[in-house]
């Protein structure tokens, strides 16, 4: 573990995990005995040197899910540009880093991490601008998020397997192309565009919205124009309890827009010599997304594509966990 990392034990030995799946806009189901509420006062833990970086309105009052019968350790490390990265660590064994998608904070990755933790040391981190990590940096650059993932790999010992969910999978590929030491790569439905992306400047428009403080419009734009959600579903989501949380995460969505519309990635993948790669596809996902997954499976040399019967873009750890675990074990 790098010297920049600082340890803080959050909780242990609780009865059950209560978050099911990793899905865009999916609410977190919680029970009283299976969560730990971390308030601003809780950051006053003596010896926690990363306190100042984490004492932000986004972090205060954050509810974290604690994995079943395990100690979840929250730590802090620092990226190349000085941005702090908050992450949870659980399990024991070869290192695996979980990289999440748009509007996801690290607690969303704990159920899958729990499914892997009997055999691996799993790191789930908040991408910049989310949860306990530092704020976004303007101008927005994919390279900064690549540096963040490289910093997490250093924390894990200098090399690690990576599980990338949705746009987090595209970030993992960009890190691999930038020389990150990724030993095995598992991807769950990365929204890869092998054809020319839309001529619309999605990242530019999102940047304008978030820098003007128009966060609700930014979330709505991402869901309508980039994800392609039907308008009536977006209107329903606005009335859901989680909508305000999405607004808080809106600035970080610019990075995901950059990843999804990256025009360089298809040509870059053509010259890539990847580590063993697994690409997972929910057989019940929309045809458009399944087409993107299939295209990526073709673009990554030697990738093994597996369709999961009955699964969608929301991860079910009980289905996905054993498959990922077997692949990572080699």
TrEMBL record:
Sorted UniProt keywords: Hydrolase
User: Does Nucleus appear among the keywords?
Assistant: no
> Which ranges carry the AB hydrolase-1 domain?
111-313
Cite the SUPFAM superfamilies for this sequence.
alpha/beta-Hydrolases
Record keyword Secreted present: no
Q: Which GO terms describe its molecular function?
A: hydrolase activity
Q: Which InterPro entries does the entry link to?
A: AB_hydrolase, AB_hydrolase_1, AB_hydrolase_fold
Recorded superkingdom: Bacteria
Q: Name one Pfam family in it.
A: Abhydrolase_6
Q: Which PANTHER family match?
A: AB HYDROLASE-1 DOMAIN-CONTAINING PROTEIN, HYDROLASE, ALPHA/BETA FOLD FAMILY PROTEIN
* The name this protein goes by in its record: Alpha/beta fold hydrolase
Q: Which organism is it from?
A: Herbidospora galbida
